[in-house]
Write a structure and sequence with these properties.
This protein is an alpha/beta fold. It is built from 10 helices and 14 strands. 30% of the residues lie in helices and 25% in strands. Strand 5, helix 6 (134-143) and strand 6 form a beta-alpha-beta unit. The radius of gyration is 22 Å and the shape is elongated. The two termini are 42 Å apart.
């Protein structure tokens, strides 16, 4: 995938694309339908997505708790897996937010990117104070000779599949249901930082990942699958939360991941941790012995859920 961030300097090879429009937070199954519609309309054109970084809500409501399902790198990886070859990831700052809907269509989509076709959901809005809607986009695109596909929301018995709904499922402790709506397990991607190395003394060394701007899902223990920098995947068990047994005060939540049957130095690398199954809520234990016994029980349960032997020799 080619990632471009300056709409004023798009190389000729990345012009004339069929472009899916939106924030694409999570890149869920509904987003995939928009991508399919863009490609189906112009299969001869480059498959492209236009999105924004940061998410507009992060600019307008910086006091909100972190809510992102996918940060830039994980979103790009998910879009690549769906066949996108060009990503226009436009910086969303205050000057950009003040551009009118007319400028967005004529200067960015038409002149800047040379769009041949557009695809979006029925609720797509853009421009200063969300002044442009699908009706405006349709009229202006037609006048400029650009095709447009408006894709209905993907729904099931509970209503439309959306990033908001997936966030709620994760916060309520249902990663399997979130994965069904995403089309893949939800993952947190981040750097491995130095922790207190307590896991080594308990017999379960961990890689520590800060949540950063990710949504915080239900605190507790998960069976996980970890993608390493070389692209290989390893199963494991993880605790996501504030470690009430060993941490004092109110530290920030973080993800501590123990990879099964793995030996290696991961400090400074970037991992992607897919949350597969929620095992139990986070809780405080009376002492380290009780904590260690529970970790062993959690690891055994995670192994069973991941169809792994209970020990390397089993």
């Amino acid at each position: 995938m080619e990632i471009l961030r300056d709409w004023r300097a798009v190389p000729e090879r990345a012009r004339g694309a069929s472009i899916a429009l939106g924030n694409f937070d999570g890149v869920h199954r509904g987003h995939a339908l928009i991508l399919e519609a863009a490609h189906r309309a112009r299969p001869d054109a480059p498959r492209a997505v236009l999105t924004f970084e940061p998410h507009p809500r992060e600019l307008f409501r910086p006091e909100d708790p972190p809510f992102r399902l996918t940060l830039s790198a994980e979103r790009a990886a998910a879009l690549t897996a769906l066949g996108v070859t060009v990503l226009y990831e436009l910086p969303f700052d205050w000057p950009f937010s003040e551009l009118s809907a007319e400028i967005f269509v004529t200067e960015i989509l038409h002149r800047g990117l040379g769009a041949r076709h557009l695809a979006c959901g029925p609720d797509f809005a853009f421009g200063h104070r969300r002044g442009g809607d699908v009706g405006f986009l349709s009229a202006r695109a037609e006048a400029l000779g650009i095709g447009l596909s408006v894709v209905p929301l993907l729904t099931d018995t509970e209503g439309p599949i959306s990033s908001t709904r997936i966030r709620r499922l994760l916060q309520e402790g249902y990663p399997e249901r979130a994965a069904s709506e995403l089309g893949r397990p939800w993952a947190i991607r981040g750097p491995v930082i130095t922790g207190d190395r307590r896991g080594r003394t308990l017999g379960f060394p961990t890689a520590n990942i800060p949540l950063g701007r990710h949504l915080e899902p239900a605190r507790g223990v998960y069976a996980v699958r970890v993608r390493l920098p070389d692209g290989t995947e390893r199963p494991g068990v993880a605790n996501l939360g504030r470690r009430p047994t060993v941490a004092s005060g109110t530290p920030e939540s973080r993800l501590e991941v123990h990879l099964f049957d793995f030996a290696g130095d991961l400090y400074g690398t970037e991992l992607s941790i897919g949350l597969l199954h929620y095992l139990r809520p986070e809780r405080r234990f009376p002492d380290l012995a009780a904590l260690t016994a529970q970790i062993a029980e959690d690891a055994a349960k995670a192994r069973r859920l991941l169809d792994l032997p209970l020990s390397p020799s089993a």
